[in-house]
Write a structure and sequence with these properties.
By secondary structure, this protein is α/β, with parallel strands linked by helices. The protein has helices at 39-53, 70-80, 94-136, 188-212, 218-221, 233-245, 280-314, 321-331, 334-339, 342-346, 353-362; strands spanning 2-7, 10-19, 22-32, 60-62, 87-89, 144-153, 156-166, 169-170, 176-179, 226-230, 254-258, 263-265. It is built from eleven helices and twelve strands. The two termini are 53 Å apart.
């Protein structure tokens, strides 16, 4: 059973899942940008999206109103259910009608509660940004905040992360990672300098492309209203140097956030800034820093895993870059290569029986 509630540009679809007359569960789904779309079209789109990935297709779907393309959707659901008939029905009376009314009321209450929570969160974010503005003496609340972190294990496969928060919330489409290319060993200061150089070089390039009419990458085309580097004065000094190299010193506010005391270091100031321990501003800064750290670690694990696969295959005589790529393209990872039969290995371009046996022996 599916019900719908509307408010401004959002729609909330409430799903009640009933089996043998018993309520087995319920879920809600919010769809944004629906202000100019009628209910019957919103519901039709929801059904197509939801039942594309649903593990079970029911024999009956109760709806609050008729939907667009009902016959086509019904035939598609029949196919998804293995040819068994699926009924789309709008209950007009009886128990099903009463259940639909209850589901609709529940959808309205859910959307109202969500909007109240969103408004509360928005107020917290506004407060947090205002507190950060005041603490750092910024001209305006920082709408776009970028934070950078470095992750490495004993100097191997170092990775830098860039996370972006806009209006106090993560803008994950603008997150970026940087595999460190010019630094040997575990030198976080130099790694931070490389990452920031590459970031602002992309910004410089984006400005040039705008003049030529090309569409630049939005992750790099905008300057941050606040740049945060994870660390203390050492990381901050490298960030200041990079900004100066691109004539952005004094244009882009920058701070170092040291984890031990949650201190904020600013260029040219001998003393640190410490926000109140339970302030919304500090909570937001911690969340941004932790998100940069999480993203860096995730990227580092992937990079380290790729290095491990490459190094194991490189140790086998006769397996060069081309054959290594062919093996990974066909099997996906080192474990599947190790489990492959002799015939499966020989099906890879460039792998003869001798190399296949060498792979089996080398990956035991």
């Amino acid at each position: 059973m599916l019900a719908i509630a509307r408010a401004d540009n959002e729609a909330c679809v409430q799903g009640f899942f009933v089996r043998n007359g018993r309520l087995m569960g319920r879920e809600y789904f919010v769809m944004e940008g629906t202000e100019e779309i009628p209910d019957e079209q919103v519901m039709a789109e929801f059904i197509k999206q939801f039942y594309t990935e649903a593990a079970v297709i029911p024999d009956r779907v109760l709806l609050p109103n008729e939907v667009q393309e009902a016959q086509i959707i019904r035939q598609w659901l029949n196919t998804r259910r293995g040819g068994n008939k699926v009924e789309l029905r709008v209950p007009r009376r009886g128990t099903a009608h009463e259940l639909m009314k209850m589901a609709t009321e529940n959808a309205v209450e859910t959307l109202q509660a969500l909007r109240a929570q969103w408004e509360a969160d928005k107020n917290k974010q506004t407060q947090a940004l205002s507190e950060i503005q005041q603490a750092l003496n910024l001209p305006e609340p920082p709408n776009r905040i970028e934070c950078y972190d470095i992750s490495n294990t004993q100097g191997t496969t170092s990775v830098g992360s860039m996370v972006v928060f806009e209006q106090g919330t993560p803008s994950r489409a603008h997150y970026r990672q940087f595999n460190i290319k010019t630094v040997s060993g575990a030198d976080d200061f130099a790694s931070m300098e490389e990452v920031l150089n590459r970031r602002f070089k992309r910004w410089q390039s984006a400005q040039e492309k705008q003049g030529l009419g090309a569409k630049p990458d939005p992750s790099f085309a905008l300057l941050p209203d606040l740049l945060i580097v994870d660390g203390g004065k050492g990381q901050l000094s490298r960030a200041v140097k990079v900004l100066a190299d691109y004539n952005l010193a004094g244009v882009v506010p920058v701070v170092g956030l040291a984890k031990q005391q949650e201190e904020l270091f600013q260029p040219g100031s001998s003393s640190s800034v410490i926000l109140p321990r339970h302030s919304q501003g500090l909570y937001l800064l911690q969340r941004i820093r932790d998100e940069a750290h999480r993203f860096a670690i995730t990227a580092h694990r992937k990079a380290r895993g790729r290095v491990g696969v490459v190094s194991r295959l490189e140790s086998i005589p006769g397996i060069g870059p081309a054959r290594r790529r062919a093996l990974l393209q066909q099997f996906g990872d080192i474990e599947r290569i190790r489990q492959a039969s002799l015939q499966e290995l020989m099906s890879v371009p460039g792998i003869n029986e001798e190399l296949a046996r060498a792979l089996q022996a080398g990956l035991e």
